[in-house]
Specification:
With 80 residues, the protein is mostly helical. It has one domain. Helices cover 81% and strands 0% of the residues. Helix 1 packs across helix 2.
Length: 80
Amino acid sequence: MVNDIMLSAMAWASSLKNAVATRIHEERGQDLLEYAVLAGAVGIVAAIALIGAGAAGWLNFASFKNKIANCVSFSNTCGA
């Protein structure tokens, strides 16, 4: 039983590897890979920018939280 599961998993992994290798060798696969790398690079740059902005004090989430907390109440005024 366990051997059958292991063999099935190995067969699936092998077919997945072959499918990925085929896509990479095709031109369409190269385009897909390039878009994936580009999306990853954009994500990393965006994360670094957000971390840097937070460290520089440009993003003050505590202030945003307090302003929202002042607005979300049963009173008719909003603390500005």
